Amino acid sequence: MSVAMYHIHIKTDKVNEVKAALIEWLEDKHDRKPIILSNQDSSLPMFDHAIPTQFALCHLHEEWVTVLHDSYEQLMELTSTLSSRFNTQVIHALGQSTVDTYHLNIFQEGHLLRKFDVGEGYDGIEQYGEPLSFEKDPVNHTVVLAEEDSNFFDYQDMKEYCLYFGLDILVDPSEKDGFWEVIKVQKDPTHVAHKTSLIQKIFLRGRKKR
Prior knowledge:
By secondary structure, the protein is α+β, with helices and mostly antiparallel strands. The protein is built from four helices and nine strands; from the N terminus they run βαβββαββββαβα. The chain has helices spanning about 15-30, 75-85, 155-165, 200-210, and strands spanning about 5-10, 35-40, 55-60, 65-70, 90-95, 100-110, 110-120, 125-130, 180-185. Strands 2-9-3-4-1-5-6-7-8 form a nine-stranded antiparallel beta sheet, with helices on both faces. β3 (about 55-60) and β4 (about 65-70) form a beta hairpin. The termini are close together. The model has no long low-confidence stretch (mean pLDDT about 85).
């Protein structure tokens, strides 16, 4: 089974406010007003841009607003801003199983609490932040990293980690097809493609393998 994740999860019930924040963010980044499409499916183009050109949002999980994006970057500025603006937890899960590259970022009220990066371009599992309380419990060691120098961390580990926040990141977004709201900017005909970054090359290579 091939797994691709490009999800931002915001712990809030303020869907309209999140939508407004994303519209504002896209307009600021692209200097164009985005269009809004209701009652859409979850199928966005994946890993096409450094700066997202479109988002899809929906209540995929209870108490969380999920945002899908078409960017291959970790979007630290955006996730930090959303976490600060809504004074809440934001979890960003990005990865692709075909190239075994994963990123998991946990924000609380605008501050980065925890970060995991693994895959091409990384030396084993790179971490940021102090282990959270559930990580320090020996009974729970299997859901995080059994060994500091372990090289194994995949989407199942990410799922087990996020379950401690009441969030199952492997729920298929297509379960809510027909209920997603898509916000996107139209393509700029004068846009000149930039050189493909290393991380985009990795994700694109994985997409070709599927």
